[in-house]
Amino acid sequence: MLQFVSKAQNLKLLQGKLKTAKILPMVILTLEDFQRNKKEILGQISRLDSPKIIVRSSSKKEDGKENSNAGAFLSLANVSKDEKEIIEAIYKVADSMPDINDEILIQPMLENVRLCGVATSADKDTLAPYYCIEYDESGATDTITDGSAKEKVSFFSHRDAPLLQDTTLQSIIDLLKELEVLFGYDFLDVEFAVDKQGKLYCLQVRPLVIQNKINFSHSLPIEALKRLQKRFLSLQRTTANVYGKKAIFGVMPDWNPAEMIGLKPKRLALSLYKEIITDSIWAYQRDNYGYLNLRSHPLMHSFLGIPYIDVRLSFNSFIPKTLDSAIALKLVDFYLDTLKNKPYLHDKIEFDIVYSCYDLNTPKKLKKLLNNGFNDNETKRIEFSLLELTNKIINPKKGLYLKDLKKIKKLKKIYQNLEKADLSIIDKIYWLIESCKRYGTLPFAGIARAGFVAMQMLNSLVEIGFFTQEEREVFLNSLKTISKQLSQKVANLTLANKEEFLKDFGHLRAGTYSILSPRYDEAFEMYFEIQNKSSLSKNYDSAFMLSEVRMQELNKLLCEHGLKINAKDFLDFLKCAIEGREYAKFEFTRLLSQALVLIGQLGDYYGIVREDMAYLDIKSILNLYASLYSKKPRNRFLDEIRYHKEEYELTLALKLPPLISESAEIFSFFGARVMPNFITQKEVNAQIATQEDTEVQGKIILIKSADPGYDYLFAKKIAGLITCYGGANSHMAIRASELGLPAAIGVGEDAFNQYLRAKRIKLDCQSEQIICL
């Protein structure tokens, strides 16, 4: 069994032993060797069969099990075989290392490289049992290690996954497996290259540093993935009232669980989201608003603890119920094919794939269908069904969203009555959740739909040239949203009005569905600072007005499109629906937040800490309202918590793609190509910060995902916003747009982690660029 020594010696040990890849010829020296035998060593280097060489550090202080020191010391590529240049390179590399006896490794510079990258035999952060391969196809040999790769490809495969059809990737995995055997070690970091003839080269092998890491290497048996594959295949079957030839699942479409509860939520957050929205409420709302009736179909599935939206079901739920069934089937299949061919649109399906409402650019957008198997008659019928549905939504007197806004206004009184009611904790939790669904999330889902229609209408005014991009932003800035009210009140926050502020906003928390995320009124100092200014600044909303001539033009435009609304009522609808979406969310979260407080108190009663209560399923608590068991609730809770903790460890080890189209992707998959959603046309150059930082003013904030509880950040005069998850229609995208704040929503995990390592970022939304400075 081989022992790790150094970069150079590890490769030397592999010469003549490694079967799955080639080791390049090498010259190994120390500075002392070179100074003593310069002529002989230069002769050895000159005999290396290549026009150029690479001179690499091989220090005792790097590539060890305790510390990799990756990139700490110098390596110089593309050094010509001119004697003077070789000598200069050797001294430069030697000077970068701490010890005169540290080795220098010299090898031929590999030519005609097809791809080059780094492979690890476990996830480098969690040690989960995945082969992780990152490579670049530019022909360069250092873009992955130095972080400069522009088109990096990531690939992940469970250790026990079936053999891959891609022979190149399989050969890299075979190399990792052979090295594991040779070194008797399961946690390896390997640099590799493949030339244009298909030959694989091992350029470096070192141990992954595993100390101080949670070890999930045995937490994810292949049997769990096989069960998931079996379930995925069974979900491919169609039911009588669901159109579409195949099921696709994603973490970002529609109700976007990746943004709202995170990719790996604990059981309570996951089950709450299912209970109050995605199990049934979502379908009731779509049915009420004139779309296909999909009641009893859960929209979200938990795949070993990761929440996935059934995208086929989502596509069905945007079909007007008046549309002919044959056309509906054809349309859903078109949506599915589009997403399959363009998976990077998975967080933009409502803008770039689906026709879910009529807007002022719909006739032009529908022409795309004519190139995809639809005829004129079919596109016209789709257009008319969307127009009919949209007119019902936006009707100024009988609009569906107006009824939902009335329902939402009952919530505050319902909350106050429940707060005062002489009920047990369990009874209060039950009625808070039931009221939240009936008077909160159900009407909210409707108002959110109207809000989407409003944003689609607003965007279409820009698309057809009636509004400029600047006019769109002025309109959004004129809105008086909850978030804007919060920002204004925070700007004027004093000890005198703190209590009044918390009465209005104290129920908000940075993780709406997480019992572990403190409310504003539970951790005020964590979120806000008291202002010491005696004269307080005031913020007024700028009014948005169109001239009489423009209003007449808009009236004519609406009439030409068959939209049964005049210009004034149309602008009122845009304002009311977009503002109403935030207002409705603000009000229903009051009940949800209080339910989480009471669940915490229930834990206190039973002697169970909140960290453990986070692993309970909400149904286990709600069942206590109408069911009495012989076993004490505390013991039932503890059993369930223990079970869900074990399941959650598996979830933490699990890697799945953000969009699953084929069952094979459960075992092996490529990292997703991500297209961030850039907000505004502005540019900002600033230092970065995260929500944990106390000083964020004037900085670009990086947050994984952001629900309404993060709105406190907007009050801190941040310069910009970047989120890992989130779609074009997400809360944060709308908020940033309203405030005119430059933002990139949903940049993806790889890019997000890269930005976290930067100190300063240039966020150019107009050219859609994010540059680490």
Task: Note the main attributes of this structure.
773 residues; alpha+beta; seven-stranded mixed beta sheet; 28 helices; 21 strands
Largest sheet: 7 strands, mixed
State Rg. 30 Å
Q: Helix proportion of residues, in percent? A: 40-55%
The residue ranges in which pLDDT falls below 50 over 5 or more consecutive positions are 534-538
**What is the averaged pLDDT score?**
91
Strand segment count: 21
Span between termini? 45 Å
- Order of strands in the sheet with most strands: 15-19-18-17-16-20-21
Structural class comes to alpha+beta
Count of DSSP H/I helices: 28
Strand fraction equals 5-15%
Estimate the global geometry from the Cα principal axes. globular
Describe the structure.
The protein has 773 residues and is of the alpha+beta class. It has 28 helices and 21 strands. The protein has a seven-stranded mixed beta sheet, sandwiched between helices. Strands 9-8-5-6-7-14 form a six-stranded antiparallel beta sheet.
